[in-house]
Amino acid sequence: MDSTDLRFFRAVATTGSIAGAAAELNCVPSNVTARIRQMEARLETPLFFRHSRGMRLTRAGEALLPFADQNDDLLRRARHAVQEADGLNAPLRLGAMETAAAIRVPGLIARLKEKLPGLALSLMTGNSLSLLDAVTDRRIDGAFVSSAHEAARWPEEIEAVAAFDETMVIVEPQNPDRQNNTLLVFGHGCSYRQMAEQWMREEAGEPPEIMEFGSLDAIMGCVAAGLGRSLVPEAAARASIYATGIRITPLGPRYARVPTFFIRRRDMPETRSMRELLTLTREMAADATPPPRRKGKRRPAA
Q1: Residue 300 has what pLDDT?
Q2: 250 within 8 A of 229, measured Cβ to Cβ
Q3: CA 140, CA 20: separation in Å to the nearest integer?
Q4: pTM of the predicted model, to two decimals?
């Protein structure tokens, strides 16, 4: 069994079919079928259950899958190392919360592309929890995630770099119904949602009624339509196409500012592209930090 065998096996396991694996591997289905049968013959055990809807792993296949995942990650890391050693810009797979992806990250990516014009880069969006899982599982190289109170629970293999703070605000209809206890939020795993639910309980004295949405635009549109309230970053609220149809109110100091971090695995190869990104992230954080006040002698009154 070699690394190519494991690639073919993993493709079938993740897609659930011979046809799906062939499309992913850019080959004909008969090649995939032959490869899987050869593996099963050499291992003397079936790796998949065949059924009308596709392929499902046997217990032996489930035992093999983690090794196939490690093989895929090792090959990708090897490509990164070779590209870096050869002076090429290793590609970056990044993640960000939707609000950060819309407001904060584009400028950072633009600066990074100026430094590395040939850089291949992809950006996925998600909530903080799903992005943390994606970084931990090596599906992406790093991500911008939120919430200091969750940082204590991050795995030891995660390194965090301060990126920027968000100023959080209340967004509600122009003429809010104070009897409306509905909170408009993203799905579970969003750190802003956790904070918003706690704020709403304190505000109303009871748990809020929750309406979940998949995008910031949907939340803002429903706020403007009078369906409820939400807590969002001020920059995102003011940039929204619905900004003129909502009321934006500052929060008290307890909830006003929320830190955002760039996280990555400590054992990931630090390619040139990653080094440049970390440098720009630290510069962004430094630009957002007010300079310390100088201590000096007070001038005597005239």
Answers
A1: 42
A2: no
A3: 22
A4: 0.65
